[in-house]
Amino acid sequence: MSSGETRDGGVLDGFHIGQVPAGVGDEVSDFATEWDDVRFASRVWERQTPDGHRVDLRVHVLRGERLVDLTALRDFLCGYHERDPAEWQLSEFPHGDGPGLHDGGQAFWLVEPGVAVNVLTTPEFGGSLLSTARSIQAGDSDPQE
User: Fold this and answer.
1) Which of 15, 21, 65, 76 has an alpha carbon 20 to 30 Å from 115's alpha carbon atom?
2) What global pTM score does this model have?
3) What are the helix and strand counts (H, E) for the chain?
4) What gap in Å lies between CA 131 and CA 13, rounded to an integer?
5) How far is 81 from 64, CA to CA, in rounded Å?
6) How does pLDDT run across 46-69, given as a tens digit for each residue?
7) How far apart are CA 134 and CA 106, in angstroms?
8) Among residues of the chain, what percentage have pLDDT more than 70?
9) Which of 40, 15, 107, 116 is nearest to 72 (CA)?
10) In whole angstroms, what is the distance from residue 60 CA to residue 97 CA?
11) Average pLDDT for residues 6-11, to the nearest whole number?
12) Residues 6-20, buried b or exposed e (16+ Cβ, 10 A)?
């Protein structure tokens, strides 16, 4: 794979991940968790390093009644990621589902009340964060099939 190519990330909990940045690790794991009444379906791309493993990219589909709007989602993620809401500098970005928020390492948006997506990456892949986020669309299959 050349340095400019991306690859398809497959389907996670009803969302097609249309683009995974080139160079992201090939070890892929899916898991489900719950935190503070919000269910997570997660996919993680990682690679082996001399010291163990490094996660390059994470995609979480979040489902919970408390996720009523973008502000509620942001508040939830502040707690989950242990961020100080007053210091977490976020910028808006457009997504097909509506407005989202991002910083250098993560992006998130509300798909509809009760359903959201959160994408996190390392600084190495930060330049691809928004294109990866925008590639994630509701749908149970690859649109090219």
Assistant:
1) 21
2) 0.90
3) 2, 10
4) 20
5) 17
6) 999 898 889 999 999 999 999 999
7) 12
8) 92
9) 116
10) 16
11) 90
12) beebbebbebbbbbb
Q: What are 64's strand-pairing partners? A: none
Residue whose pair of structure tokens reads 């490094």 in the numeric block: 54
Among residues 97, 94, 25, 87, the alpha carbon closest in space to that of 61 is found at: 97
Number of neighbouring beta carbons within 10 Å of residue 75: 14
Contacts of 32 (CB under 8 A, 6+ apart): 39, 40, 41, 42
What is the rounded distance in angstroms from the CA atom of residue 108 to the CA atom of residue 45?
Answer: 18
The DSSP result for 8-76, as a single string, is --EEETTEEE--B-TT--SEEEEEEEEETTEEEEEEEEEEEETTEEEEEEEEEEEE-TT--SHHHHHHH
Residue 5 backbone phi and psi in degrees, to 5? -80, 150
Give whole-number Cα distances, 135 to 87, 132, 138, 139, in Å.
28, 5, 10, 12
Phi, psi of 114 (to 5 degrees): 95, -10
